[in-house]
Design goal:
This protein is mainly α. Helices cover 79% and strands 0% of the residues. The chain is built from 11 helices and no strands.
């Protein structure tokens, strides 16, 4: 619920879910990824329609991006299932560390850049969107990154507005999450006790996402992003240091 609220408020923090499952609930990394990607599907489904209603969601580009992500996610799941549990855990912590750092870097003041006309509308060839979707999905599916923290900066570099980039990334997270969740649940020999966590976890995540999105205008999103980013960096460094030393 808390992570869902952060996603609803700021569009970030999904990358904290697998870390919570691994560190706090001490679940197997594969089970953690299965639960996390199931939640990303919920938050993506709940989040993207608002951007479509406001006219900030270009469906053509989203379609090609999602197509690439579907293919990339399948490949990413095979990579994740092939990795030893210890290696997969280290990758999770590194992704959280990089994600938190990326959030802080993106918050730095940026100089105004004059973009070409095609960049202002985000117009690129189909191959660009399919490639971006495929590459980011492989990384996300194999590591547990939610998607927006990787996809949003790339879409903004392609010329999309921040709102369009967030909306597209939320829809894209559904395309990444569905094959990833299915792949890890089916291929990961998930224990029955983990299946029992699925429904309450999804309900809590959905409630948090809705509550966060409804109250986004009431909170200083910048402060919350800093808290999430700094906290995630601290947790990742602490866990990586513990694995290195002990």
């Amino acid at each position: 619920m808390l992570v869902g609220a952060c996603i609803g408020l700021t569009g970030i923090a999904g990358f904290l879910l697998p870390i919570f499952y691994v560190s706090v609930l001490t679940l197997d990394p594969v089970a953690s990824l299965a639960l996390a990607f199931s939640a990303f599907v919920v938050s993506g489904i709940l989040g993207w329609p608002a951007y479509r209603a406001s006219g900030d969601l270009p469906l053509r580009e989203c379609g090609w991006l999602a197509l690439g992500s579907l293919v990339g996610a399948v490949a990413g799941v095979f990579v994740g299932l092939a990795l030893p549990a210890q290696v997969l855990t280290v990758i999770l912590y590194i992704v959280v560390l990089v994600s938190g750092t990326t959030v802080l870097v993106r918050m730095r003041p940026k100089k105004s850049i004059k973009l070409k006309d095609d960049a202002q509308t985000g117009e690129r060839s189909v191959a660009v969107y399919v490639a971006v979707g495929a590459v980011t999905a492989v990384i996300c599916a194999a590591s547990g990154a939610g998607g927006p923290v990787l996809v949003v900066p790339i879409l903004m570099l392609l010329g999309f507005s921040p709102r369009s980039a967030v909306g597209m990334s939320l829809l894209d997270s559904v395309a990444i999450g569905i094959p990833s969740a299915i792949g890890y649940f089916v291929g990961g020999s998930i224990d029955a006790s983990v299946w029992s966590l699925l429904l309450p976890a999804l309900i809590g995540h959905g409630i948090g996402t809705i509550a966060g999105s409804m109250n986004a205008h009431r909170i200083n999103a910048t402060v919350l992003k800093v808290i999430v980013a700094v906290g995630s960096i601290g947790v990742a460094l602490y866990k990586l240091a513990g694995m290195l030393l002990g």
